[in-house]
């Protein structure tokens, strides 16, 4: 019997649909600051290459600040286009990027209704996210998610990034639940599904409107127990 549902955050409760268009102007502005001229395609391809290079570097780490990850991507991006990164430029970018991501993330349309239903059913509900505290807490507060959650956990707080086992075990201890009593819902095969499955949780992979899950190295994947398109599909999985 499923007594708890643990959710990933981005791509799961929130959609990433606005992220590409919201963050692209930051990259162009950064290039202006370092005097680099590049086309939209050059910017897009350089950022994709920088992201993939950084993913390979970070995929073996059990813990890292996501601010550090995004900064590493940015530095690589600037270098690929022939720019020279500077400390004050990096500080500007990280601050602007954090604000941009928080502002552009939107709850999926059925998120609140599902969380209300789960709470009324007496299901233990939490967020277990690979995100820094200065992104997670503003989102929880802005959208008043604390009304529906029993707890929420960031990788920064636990010093463990999915699929590392420490963050999953921490969430189980807080919930006082056994692995088989929890359904983990996430959009990342490599972080959410792999990590939760290794520990013995049931898993549900949710799609984000056709958007690919971010930060995947493609090295290790596992088949989820369930695949869903909408958050409300969870109700069929956990049953009455």
For the largest beta sheet, what order do the strands appear in spatially?
Answer: 5-4-1-6-7-8
CATH-defined topology of the largest domain: Rossmann fold
Structural class: alpha/beta
- The fraction of residues assigned to DSSP E strands is 5-15%
CATH homolog superfamily of the largest domain: HAD superfamily/HAD-like
Number of helices: 10
> Rough shape?
elongated
Beginning-to-end CA distance, first to last residue? 10 Å
Main sheet? 6 strands, parallel
Reading off the top of the CATH hierarchy, the class of the largest domain is best stated as Alpha Beta
Q: Any idea how many domains? A: 2
Report the uncertain regions.
none
Name the quaternary structure: single chain
Order of helices and strands: EEHHHHEHEHEHHEHEEH
Instruction: Please state the second-level CATH architecture of the largest domain.
Output: 3-Layer(aba) Sandwich
What is the typical, i.e. mean, pLDDT?
Answer: 93
Tell me the number of strands: 8
Binned, the helix content reads: 40-55%
Description:
The protein has ten helices and eight strands. The protein has about 240 residues and is α/β, with parallel strands linked by helices. It has two domains: about 140 residues, HAD superfamily/HAD-like (Rossmann fold); about 90 residues. The radius of gyration is 18 Å and the shape is elongated.
Care to give the gist of this entry?
By secondary structure, this protein is of the alpha/beta class.
């Amino acid at each position: 019997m499923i007594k708890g549902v643990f959710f990933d955050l981005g791509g799961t409760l929130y959609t990433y649909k606005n992220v590409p268009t919201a963050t692209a102007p930051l990259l162009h502005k950064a290039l202006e600051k370092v005097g680099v001229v590049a086309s939209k395609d050059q910017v897009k391809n350089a950022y994709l290459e920088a992201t993939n290079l950084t993913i390979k570097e970070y995929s073996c780490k059990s813990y890292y600040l996501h601010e550090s990850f995004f900064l590493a991507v940015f530095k690589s991006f600037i270098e690929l286009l022939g720019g020279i990164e500077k400390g004050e430029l990096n500080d500007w970018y990280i601050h602007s990027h954090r604000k941009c991501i928080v502002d552009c993330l939107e709850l999926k349309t059925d998120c609140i209704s599902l969380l209300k239903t789960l709470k009324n059913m007496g299901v233990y509900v939490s967020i277990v996210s690979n995100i820094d505290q200065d992104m997670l807490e503003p989102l929880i507060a802005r959208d008043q998610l604390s009304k529906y959650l029993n707890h929420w956990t960031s990788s920064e707080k636990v010093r463990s990034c999915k699929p590392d086992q420490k963050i999953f075990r921490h969430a189980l201890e807080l919930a006082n639940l056994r692995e088989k009593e929890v359904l983990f819902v996430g959009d990342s095969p490599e972080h959410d599904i792999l990590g939760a499955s290794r520990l013995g949780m049931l898993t549900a992979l949710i799609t984000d409107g056709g958007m690919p899950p971010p930060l995947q190295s493609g090295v290790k994947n596992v088949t989820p127990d369930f695949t869903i398109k909408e958050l409300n599909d969870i109700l069929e999985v956990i049953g009455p």
